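Comment thread on ticket #2218

A.B. wrote:
> Attaching the input chain for the structure job we discussed in standup.
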Amino acid sequence: MSIQYEEEQNIFHLKAGGMSYAMQVVRGKYLAHLYWGRGIRSYEGSRSLIQKERVLEANPESGDKSFSLGTLPQEYPQYGNGDFRSCAFCVRDEAGSRISSLSYQGYKIEKGKPGLPGLPASFGKEPEAETLRIHLRDEAAGLDVFLLYSVFEKENVIARSVCFENRSQKELMLEKMMSMSLDIRESDFDVLTLYGAHNNERNPDRRPLKSGTIQIESLRGVSSPQQSPFMALLRKGTKEDQGEVFAANFVYSGNFQALAQADSFGNTRFQMGMNPWNGEWLLEPGESFWTPEVLLVYSDKGLNGMSHTFHRFIRNHLIRSPYGKQERPILINSWEAAYFDFTEEKLLALAGKAKEAGIELFVLDDGWFGKRNDESCSLGDWYENREKLPLGLHSLEQKIHSMGMQFGLWVEPEMISEDSDLYRAHPDYVLHTEGRPYTYGRRQLVLDLSRQEVCNYVLDAMEKVLSLAGIDYIKWDMNRHLTDVGSAFLPSKRQGEVFHRYVLGLYWILERLTANHPEVLFESCSSGGGRFDAGMLYYMPQTWCSDNTDPVCRIGIQYATSLIYPPVAMGAHVSASPSHQTGRISPLSTRGNVAMSANFGYELDLTKCTEGELLEISEQVRFYKEIRNTVQKGAFYRLENPFEGNTAAWEFVSEDGREVLAFRFTVLCRPNAPVEILKLQGLDEEARYQNAKTGEIYGGDELMYSGISIPPEEGDYRSGCFRFWRV
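C.D. wrote:
> Ran it. Output below, let me know if you need it in another format.
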C-alpha cells in the first residue's frame, strides 16, 4: 500500500517510490508535518513533535503555554490564531473577518489519481497511484477544505492540490489558496530557482536560505520567462549526482508564487500556488474551488536524480498526447528564412531543399492570414492571405504532402490586433478595464478568455483553420503578457478572478481542440520559452525552448531547462550564422549538436546554403534519425555545467542501455590548453562499450571513473559527439 494510516497515533505514512512523507493529527484537530525524505519501512514516531513555551508565541488552547501554532510544523496553516508565518490560505467572510480555524474531520483513500475540474493534472490508474483526501473544516465560516495527496507507487512523486467548499449560506471570498504548504523542521538549505527574460530563459539561481523569506512569483498572467514555477530545497553540498533535493513544480500556466521561509526556530515553510495578488475567488454557497496541482519530487541522488524523476513522470503521467510516446519529426520552420515576406513559390523552394536533406515536417510561420505583412495587424482574422497564397493553404499543403513531408502552421489565437476585422466587429473582446486606456505589447492586445463567448470564438476559429488544409502540426504562440486586466462582464466583487478565469478559458479551449485533433502535434510557444510549464505540456507535448537559437546561449538555456523537463519537450532549431539574435558566428556542427540534443529542427533559408552546408545538414538529419529514439526517450545526464566554466557536456543513455551518446561543448578556445577529461554516467560497470567511430572497446567502469580524453581544438564554439554501443 502506498498510503498507510496508523490509527492509534493518527499518523499518515505516504510511500512513493523511494521516498516517505509522514503527517500526524495532533490533539485530534491539527494536521502536522512529520517527515519528508528517503523511504523508510514504517514511521513509529522517532521524530516526535516537541513543543515548549516560547515567549511571544500565541497559544490556541487556554492554560497550555507550550502549545503554539506558530511553532507547530503544519501541513496547511491558517491565518489569525497564532501562526505569524505565511499562511497557506485566507478566506474573508461577509463581515470582513479573515480569521480561520481548521479542524481535522477525517480522511478517505481512493485508488488511482483523480483529475481536477477544468485544470491540467497528472494521471495514473490503479495500481500506479493512490490518493489520500484529508478533510478539514472551519465551522465558524462554514468552509470545508480537502487536501489531496496523490502518491505514485513507482516514482518519487506526490501530487498535491486543495479543494474549498462553501457549506454556509453566505458568500465567502477566497483571498489566498496555495496548492501546497508544508513545514520542515530544518532550515540549513540552499534554494534553487530558475530566472530569466526573453531570449535568456531559465538561468539557475542557487542561494542559501537564511532567516526570512526567499520568494519568486509571476504577475504577468503567464508562468513567464522571468521566473519558472519551480523551487527546490537542496541540502548543503548537493551536486548533480549526490545529495538530497526537495522540489516542487506547479502544473499551471498563470500567475504563481513560491516561497521558502525560515523562521527564528530553525524551521522552513515551503509553499507553492496561485499568486494571491489580484487572485481572489468569490465562493457562493454550495460552490467549490479547486487549486492547480503541485508535483513534489524527492531525490537522494542529487539534481540528476531529481531530473530523472521529473522527466519520466512528465512523459508517463502528464503528457497525454499520443505524441508523448511517439518519435517527433524533424522540422523546418519558415520564420527566420522568410519572416513575413514569402510566396508559395518561395515556400516550395525551401520545402524542396528540406526534403532533399531528409527533413520530415514543413512549418509555415507568421504571415499567412488576414492582411498580415508585419506585426501591426490581422491577429484574430484567421483566414488565408490570398495575396501571398493565391491558391490558398490547401494547395500549398497538398504540394508539401506530395513531397512526402508533413505540413504545419503557426497561430497566435489568444491575441487581437486593433487593425483587424475581429476588432472592428468586436472591440468588446479585448481584455481591458473599462475607462482605462489600452496598454500595448508587440503592437497587439489580448483577447478576454475569461468570457465564454470569446473562448467559443477562438475554438471555432481554430477548428476552421484546421479544416483549411491537412495540417499535421500547430505552433501555438503567445507574444505578450496580460495588462489592463479586468472585465466589463463581471461584477466588481469578481474582478479579482479575471487572471485565473483567463487561464481556465485557455485550458477550456485546449482541452477541446487537442481532444478533437489527437492526430495533430501541438507545440506551445510564448515568445520562445515564456510559458514553458507543466500545465501547457499536459495539452501540448513540446514547447519552443527560446527564440534565441544562438548555440552558445542555447547550451545554457537547454541545460537549465533539463533540470525539470525532458529534452523531448524542448524545441531546438539550427539557425543561420551569424545568429539573428546575437550576431555570433558559430560552426554548423556546433549548432547541430546543440539542437540535436533536444527536439530537432531547422530555422534558416536552405536555398541560400552552400553545397557543403547542405551536405552537412543532410548528414545531421541522417544522424539524428539514428539517435532520435535515445535522445527523445532515453535517460539524460548533465555532466559539465556551462554556468560554472568554459565547457558544457551532457549525455543520453537509451531505454535499454545499449546506446550511449555524449555531447561536449567548448565556448572559447584557450592557447596551450590542457587535455581535459569527460567522465560518463549511467553505464553498467560490468558491461563493455564500443566507440561507434573508432571501434575501441572499454569497460563501463572505465568510461565512468577514468573517463575520455578530450584533445584541444582550435577555434571558438567547438563541440564533439561521442557514441558508444554496449557489446
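A.B. wrote:
> Thanks. Noting for the ticket: DSSP finds twelve helices and 38 strands in the chain.
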